[in-house]
Amino acid sequence: MNKKGAELPLTTMIVAIIVIVVLVVIIAFFLSGTYSLKQAISRIFYGTTAGTDESLAVQICQQNCEIARTLPEEIRKDSQFCKQSFSIDKNNDGEAEYTVDPSTNKKTYTKYYCKDLKVPCEVSCI
User: Fold this and answer.
1) Distance between terminal CA atoms of the chain?
2) What is the gyration radius of the CA atoms in the chain, in angstroms?
3) CA distance 21 to 24
4) How many CB atoms lie within 10 A of CB 119?
5) Is 0.70 surpassed by the pTM of this model?
6) Which of 21, 35, 76, 120 falls 20 to 30 Å from 28 in CA-CA distance?
7) Where are the alpha helices (DSSP H) in the chain?
């Protein structure tokens, strides 16, 4: 039997999947503006209104603290432990905490930093 006909669709599907992933990354890069590529991809695949689970944010902060400890003292204040913010749903209503501007009715989501989450770390962000 000649199996070359069966290989073409499989190869085509693999190439198509790779092309789609590359296109998503390129679109995320161009839509991100000044954000990093990681943040842009997070905004696309994860709901921005749902927020991050608080326990997950604390774990991320603990990991960022470990990384910040390894950095030289002069650049620790620019580490992810000090700079990364989280939108958190504290009351479990499916939407991150926010304030509403009465004049425009626009929601502004509250940003929580690792220091706001009371993550113990000897890294100074000042």
Assistant:
1) 72
2) 21
3) 5
4) 18
5) no
6) 76
7) 4-31, 37-45, 54-70, 80-83
